[in-house]
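Technical note accompanying the year-one report. For the benefit of new consortium partners, we illustrate the data format agreed upon in the data management plan: each record pairs a sequence with a structure-token string. No post-processing was applied to the example shown here.
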Amino acid sequence: MFRLSVLDHVRLNFDRVSQNYMVHAKAAERLARLTASVRIGVLALLGVATAAAMLSVIDPRRSFQIATAVAAGLAFGAHAAYLAAGVEGRVNAHRSCAHRLWLVCDRYRSLLGEIEDRLLDSASILQRRDELSAQVHAAYDQGFSLDQNAYEGVRQTAGDASSDVEVTDEPHDVVPASSVSH
């Protein structure tokens, strides 16, 4: 077990928030591409159904009527599955969460800069750290189903080293430890 200063804790939290931002941004991008692909696919099936229906009017062969019914049925099924999956809602939720996390990342960068320039006392550092932590938690208050694949990838790359860490409220190289308040 090792000790972790407040500055180290802020840096680790900033790193984790940055990783979570990337997870949500990539999930939103991946789901948006899926949404576009499904929409194009449904549009193509509707185009085939329309063409087959027009051919059926000109030349009433049974094969054109069957093609019309099959293409329209596939388009309907694909669109129903798309709506049932709620992909658009997930895209919007991931985008919103990524946006909120990006703002928190910016605030972490600001805090780290102010710590580096010695503009804050220990009490202010602790207060800002706690406020940023609350803002991160608030970013996840919206209701949406988590993208398990994205989170699993981040979990595997980050490991579980945090269980061996002891967090202290002693910022090293920032302000004297004696002025730190809890």
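Partners are asked to follow this layout when depositing records. Confidence is low (pLDDT under 50) at residues 159-182.
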